[in-house]
Specification:
Blueprint (H helix, E strand, L loop, with lengths): L2 E4 L5 H12 L3 E6 L2 H11 L5 E5 L5 H9 L10 E4 L15 H29 L2 E6 L12 H21 L4 E8 L6 H5 L4 H6 L9 H12 L9 E4 L4 E3 L2 E2 L4
Parallel strand pairs: 1-2, 1-4, 2-3, 4-5, 5-6, 6-7
Antiparallel strand pairs: 8-9
Length: 250
């Protein structure tokens, strides 16, 4: 039975992936900063597989380091790391941007991914085995106005994924970079800081991807044959032609 660690596991893509992998008989290490939601998901999925949870904020290297020190010996060999935790905050021109929003995105989307990966990679290298899946965005492919810092943070994920692949392939470790297009999750609610009306308009007039669609893709990637490494995948809803262009029917 393989062990998968998922960051940002309490909602959206992370939660959907956790549920799917539990059904596929993976042991799960679920990570999240919302303790109550993490405990609820851990209890739910423990009915189907072995589950261990780690409560920390990826933006804090100290929290990440302390959390990993609590992993029992039998949970320290991680076969699959899914770096899913991330965020978008605000949608303004750089000249009017909120510096705290910038820090939140860079600390979560970039530094958090690095902090967690650094904890997991050494044991993968020692065992000459492992798979890292990084969740980027199609925003890395095409910068859009008013979202420059978010786009830059996701471009960094692409670059980090490429660098991981260069450094880890000799150790038989696969690295996959997933770039979702428009996915209907809590993403827009967070970006617009709880403005549900504004967030809902993001998905008006077309059928966006669901978190389960990305979970299906992640499962396909990590269950591919041993000799197959899926490096980069972009996934759009049918109505989306490129990061900035969505055809709305109503």
């Amino acid at each position: 039975m393989r062990t998968a660690l998922i960051t940002g596991a309490t909602s959206g893509i992370g939660k959907a992936t956790a549920k799917l992998l539990a059904a596929q008989n993976y042991r799960l290490i679920l990570c999240g900063r919302r303790k109550e939601a993490l405990e609820e998901l851990t209890t739910e999925l423990s009915n189907y597989t072995e589950v261990f949870s780690l409560n920390f904020d990826v933006r804090s290297n100290a929290e990440v380091s302390d959390a990993f020190k609590t992993l029992p010996k039998e949970w320290q060999e991680i076969d699959v790391l899914i770096n899913n935790a991330g965020n978008a905050h605000g949608l303004e021109p750089m000249s009017e941007g909120n510096v705290e929003d910038w820090d939140t995105m860079i600390d979560g989307n970039v530094k958090g991914l690095l902090y967690v990966s650094k904890e997991v990679m050494p044991q993968m290298k020692r065992r000459n085995s492992g798979h890292i899946v990084n969740i980027s965005s199609v925003a890395a492919l095409q910068t859009y106005a008013n979202g420059v810092v978010y786009c830059a943070s996701k471009k960094a994920v692409d670059v980090i994924s490429e660098g991981m692949r260069l450094e880890l392939t000799e150790f038989n470790i696969k690295v996959s970079n997933v770039q979702p297009g428009a996915v209907e999750t809590e993403f827009s609610n967070i970006r617009f800081k709880g403005d549900e009306e504004r967030a809902a308009k993001v998905y008006d007039g077309y059928e966006a991807l669901k978190a389960e669609d990305i979970a299906d893709l992640i499962a396909y990637i990590i269950n591919a044959p041993k000799h197959v490494s899926i490096a980069n995948v972009s996934i759009f809803p049918t109505a989306q032609a490129e990061p900035r262009t969505i055809y709305r029917r109503t």
